[in-house]
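Pinned message: reference record for General stress protein 17M-like domain-containing protein
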Amino acid sequence: MTGAFSGPGRANQGLPKVPTPPTGWPIGSYDTYQEAHRAVEHLASNEFPVEEVTIVGVDLMLVERVIGRLSWAKVLGTGALSGAWFGLFVGLLLGLFNTQQASFAPILVGLAAGVVFGLVFAAVGYASTRGRGREIASATQLVAGRYDVLAQPRNAEKARDLLAKLAMGPGGRTD
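Predicted structure (tokens):
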């Protein structure tokens, strides 16, 4: 499944040009995205027309996971490292246009300049936010409380039957 939205014009495969609420009848509800994706994979392996299926994240939450404390050492180290990568890239580009044979000077100059600029920008950015609640490093994710799988009405009953067999386990038996 690559699309996040489905619309009334499903025959024209592709994402809607504007945000469009999903359509279809609920055929399953799952606690994790992996479970919902597994259900759609099951439908696909049973020759169900999965282009009529949509996975919808419901009860969205923005979750910020704290990774650790920020310190000058971490901030400057990260700034130097990112600056070094950018400087290396610029140095390599300059080296491509260097007319002297086998000179590593442009690469070394780009690397050194990148480290210096990375340190300066990291230091200025960290100093400007210090004392205003940015003493932590974190990663933000958008997660859903549950994932509903929808299918177009013409095939919703067939999809429910297939997913019921999946829920019963291997072979679709309950013994």
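Pinned by admin. Summary line: The first helix runs from residue 33 to 45.
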